[in-house]
Protein: Urea ABC transporter permease
Organism: Mycolicibacterium aromaticivorans JS19b1 = JCM 16368
Amino acid sequence: MRTLVGRWQTWAGFAVAAVILFGIAPAMLTSFRLDLLGQYLCYAIVAAGIGLAWGRGGMLTLGQGVFFGLGAYMMGMHLKIADAEIRKQPVPDFMQIAGIPALPSYWEPFSSAAFTLAAIVVIPTGIAALLGLGVFKRRVKGAYFAILSQALAAALAILLVGQSTVGGSNGLNGFRTFFGFRLSDPVNRQMLYFIAAGTLLVVVAVVRQLMQSRYGELLVAVRDGEERVRFLGYDPATIKVVAYTAAALFASVAGALFAPIIGFITPAQVGVVPSIAFLIGVAIGGRTTLLGPILGAIGVAWAQTAFSERFPSGWTYAQGLLFIVVVGFFPAGLAGVGALLRRRRRTTGVLSAGDAQHAQAETVGAAT
């Protein structure tokens, strides 16, 4: 009976989310605000993967900007090639300015849409799997893994800045089309938003299935007692690699959607600072829950836009203070506040019942 009720609640939750994302939001928001919401949904996709890897697996992933950037740059390369082909030019506009006469060899495969989509899925997951096996097989974890992942994000940003063939510090920008659809058309921009919203719902469904499966139980067991899991005959490294690879895939897909929605991608959006920003949203929302990281990422991104418009220099300090308060006083994030209140209410009720029984016992004893 509980399983049936849980399934109905899950389907009802997805139905409500679909109505909000596909019905209410497009009807109430302007085109500009809908584009902003599409960006927030991309952040939420990244956050869902971080919640799986960090919240359930205990892996502090400070380098998700690497995979986010890989997906965004690969999509940007395809879009720039498509724009050049429409204008019947041999290379994208920024290469003409830089004096590059022909496409670099590693750019040429991205002229194919099928190759680009496959690369967005395969390349980041392959890198994450190889890196994960190399790190987790050597039992690197905790702060050491966090520092390593953060160093990779910094290295990628520095590498991109020095590469003129990918735009250098300016990155890739000025996208005009998306698989043949003009990005200047509001209808096509709304289509991009719908794709991001649908992708988020699919990612949430996948993460939920992983969390509630036998694998999800093993992932939590590895987080809480890795040596015990190893003693039972399971390989914790393999379990961690699966979660880390899934998080990398989600980040890459989010980056690929983010590039055409926002219209550009630069090294500043894939380095250390964005990676930490992803983490802050997850921590504030509640990393151990399903919806906490998603709502936290959307909420923090919205707050950044709203407050930075009024207090441009103060948002960074407010974000840091919020992160400190949540980590220091609400380790489970805002999603854990409700659970804490329910637990205290339940404990208070038990204590009140116990006091009543004790008083009744004393009365009976005195009467006797």
In short: The beta strands are 172-173, 177-178, 181-182, 264-265. The two ends are 47 Å apart (CA to CA). Residues 336-368 form one domain.
